Amino acid sequence: MATTTTATTTAMTDNTESQVIHLEQLREQSDGESPNKVTVEAVPRWNQPRGNLYRTLAAFWAFLMMGMNDAAYGPLIPYQRSQLQTYYSVSYTIVSLVFLSPFAGYILAALLNTPIHLRAGQRGISIIAPSCKLLAYIVIAVHPPFPVLVVIFLFAGFGIGLEDAAWNAYFGVMEHANELLGVMHSLYGLGAVISPLIATSLITRAKVGWWYFYYIMIIKIGLETIELITSTIAFFPSTAATYRAASAKLTTTTSENGHTTTTATTSSNAFAPFKEALFKRPHARVTWLATCFLLLYMGTEVALGGWIVEFALRVRHADQFPAGMTATGFWLGVTVGRLILGFVTPRIGVWRAIAIYLPLAMGCNLLLWLVPSFIVSAVAVSFMGFFLGPLFPGAVLAATRLLPKHLHITGIGFAAAFGGGGAALFPFAIGAIAQAAGVKVLQPVALGMLAGCWLLWMGLPRRWDGKRD
User: Fold this and answer.
1) Which element (helix H / strand E) includes 267?
2) Where does residue 147 fall: left (phi above 0), alpha (psi -120 to 50 degrees), or beta otherwise?
3) What one-character DSSP code corresponds to residue 207?
4) Could you give the CA distance from residue 303 to residue 281 in angstroms, rounded to a whole number?
5) Residue 5's pLDDT is what?
6) 3-state SS class at 143
7) What's the mean pLDDT when you consider all of the chain?
C-alpha cells in the first residue's frame, strides 16, 4: 500500500489578507481499489512539544493571579464600601461603579480578543493582558482620585477578560482538555483561597485602610511581573501567522474522479468569525448558550464568594474573622471540586455530570438559605463551591466540541470574556438589591441564577457526550 500526499499554497488578497492552503491526502491500495480519503489530525498535548509545557505553566500562573484578584472583593466589601464612601466622600451608588467598571473591561476583551489574535497572536495576549493588570495594581496602590480608580479597574477587567478568553480556548482543544481545564481553574480557586486570608487578616486584625491590601499587592505586583515575563517568553513564538494557520476554516470538495481536496482559509477580517459565531446557525446557538451559561455561572460564583461574608455577618451574626473565613471555605470548595471532579467528569460524561452537579449545588444553596445556623451555612457554602467548581471547564469543553475549530478562539473567547463579565455585573446588582432589601436576598437570587444555568445547559445540543472510559 502506498500513500501519496499533495499540498499547494496560494496567497489571495482582496479587502482582507487571506491564506488558502489546499491539502489532498489519498490512500492508494495495491489491489486496485479506488483511493480513500485519509484524515489525520494530531491533537495537541500540554507537554509536547516542550514549548507547550512552558505555555501551560505560564497560563496556570496567570489563572492563579486571576483568582487572587477576583476573590479579594469578598472580605473587603463590608469594609471597603464604607471606607471608600468616607475616603472619597461619595454615595454608595457612586462607590459601586468601582465594582461595575471591570464589566466594561470584560466586554472590551470579548470584542477585541479575536482582532488581537489576528494581528498579534497569543504573543499579543501574553503581553497586553498582564501589562493591563500590572498597571491597575500599581495605580490602585497609591489610592488615586476616584474617577481614576473607576477607570483603572476597567484595565484590570480587560486584562483578566483577555486571559480568560485566550487560555480557555487554548486548552479546550488539547488532549485531556477537561482535566487540564480543571487543574487550571483549580489554580484560580487556589488564588481565590489566598486572597481572602490576606484581606481578612488585614481588615480584622491589623485594622488598616482598604488600600493596604494593595500595598500587599506590591508582592502581587512582583508576581504579576513574573507573569508578564513568563507569559511573554512562553508565547512569544505564537505569532499572528501561527494563529491564522491553526484556526483556518476547512472546506472539503470532491472532484469527479473521486479525489478529495480540503481547503483551509484564514482571513484577517476580525468581523467574519464574529458574524459566523454569533449570528449564523447552528454555531450562534452554541455560542450564545455558552455565553449566557457562563454569565450566570460566573455571576453566581463571584457573588457568593463576595457577599457570603456580609451574609454571615448580618444574617448569621458571626464574628468578623469566622465570617471572613466563609469566603475562604467557598473558594477552597471550588478548588477541590475542580481538582477532584475534573477527573471524574469525563468518566460520567460532561453533559450528564454538569446536569447532576447543578441540582446538588442548588440543594446546598437551600441549606445555606433556610437553616439558621452559621456552622451549617459555612459547611453548605463550601460544598456549594465544590459542586460549582467543574461548571466553567465543562462549558468550555462543550463549546470546543460543538463549534468548528476555526471558531474556537472567537466563540469560546467571546463566551469566556463576556460570560466572565458576570463576575463584575452580578455582585454589583446583588449589592444594589441588598442595599434596598438586605443581604438576605443573596440566596434566593443565587438559587434562581443556578436554575437558569441548568435550563441553559439543557438547551445545548446533545450530540456530544465527552465521556471517556
Assistant:
1) strand 260-267
2) alpha
3) -
4) 33
5) 36
6) coil
7) 78
Please say whether the dihedral angle defined by the alpha carbons of residues 275, 277, 283 and 285, taken in this order, is positive or negative.
negative
Q: What is the mean pLDDT of residues 383-405?
A: 90
- Whether the CB-CB separation of 417 and 159 falls below 8 Å is answered with no
Per-residue pLDDT of 151-171, as tens digits, reads 998 998 899 989 988 898 888
Q: Give mean pLDDT, residues 64-81.
A: 66
Please say whether the dihedral angle defined by the alpha carbons of residues 52, 53, 59 and 60, taken in this order, is positive or negative. positive
What are the φ and ψ backbone dihedral angles of 91, each rounded to 5 degrees? -80, 170
Q: What are phi and psi of 264, to 5 degrees?
A: -110, 120
| 8 A C-beta contact, residue 384 and residue 330 | yes
DSSP letter, residue 47: T
Residue-wise pLDDT for 308-366, tens only, equals 888 898 889 888 888 878 888 998 899 899 989 988 888 888 899 999 999 999 999 99
- SS3 breakdown of the chain: % helix, strand, coil, rounded to 5? 75, 10, 15
Work out the number of other CB atoms within 10 angstroms of the CB of residue 444: 12
State how far the Cα of 399 lies from the Cα of 415, in Å rounded to an integer: 9
DSSP assignments along 54-84, one per residue: HHHHHHHHHHHHHHHHHHTHHHHHHHHHHHH
CA distance 266 to 249: 6
What does the alpha-carbon distance between residue 196 and residue 343 come to, in Å, rounded to a whole number?
Answer: 27
Residues 6+ apart with CB under 8 A from 226: 61
Beta-carbon neighbour count of residue 468 at 10 Å? Answer: 13
Q: Are 216 and 194 in contact (CB under 8 A)?
A: no
- Strand, coil or helix: what is 370? helix
Q: Half-sphere exposure (CA, 13 Å, Cβ side) for 102? A: 30
pTM listed for this prediction: 0.76
> 109: Cβ–Cβ under 8 A, 6 or more apart, which residues?
157, 158, 159, 160, 161, 162, 164, 165, 417
Nine-digit cell string for 354:
454538569
Give the rounded distance of the alpha carbon of 9 from its chain centre.
36
CA–CA gap between residue 312 and residue 121 (Å, rounded): 45
Q: Which of 238, 240, 242, 235 is nearest to 270 (CA)?
A: 240
Q: How many CA atoms lie within 13 A of 87 on its CB side?
A: 15
DSSP 218-249: HHHHHHHHHHHHHHHHHHTT--HHHHHHHTPE
Torsion (CA) 12, 13, 18, 24 in degrees, nearest 10: -10
Looking up cell 482582496, which residue turns up? 14
Tell me the residue type at 392: F
Across residues 246-271, what is the average pLDDT? 55
| Whole-number pLDDT of residue 38 | 40
Backbone angles phi, psi at 85, to 5 degrees: -60, -45
